[in-house]
Amino acid sequence: RLGEYEAAEVLIDLHNALELAGLTDRQCEAIRLVYFEDLTQVEAGKRMGIAKQNVEAYISNAARKIADIYYYWASHGEGYTMGGRING
């Protein structure tokens, strides 16, 4: 059960990071299609009406923004680490 709890913590942190990252609607859509609906970047591009390269750019830029949130949390002793939750 501890593993399930930790997995839930990671997902909650990811959800919070997505909310705090200030992603554009298009970045959110690309992330949702590729990572949550499990489409390829080509399929996501077709769904969004854009080229695969644009999907790739949206995801890359979104990943940087999300990483910034995790770096902030790590430098302030917040969020989840591989060793478990910090400060919470």
Automatic annotation (TrEMBL):
Keywords: DNA-binding. One of its GO terms (molecular function) is DNA binding. Pfam families: Sigma70_r4. GO terms for biological process: DNA-templated transcription initiation. Residues 20-66 form the RNA polymerase sigma-70 region domain. SUPFAM superfamilies: Sigma3 and sigma4 domains of RNA polymerase sigma factors. This is Sigma factor-like helix-turn-helix DNA-binding protein.
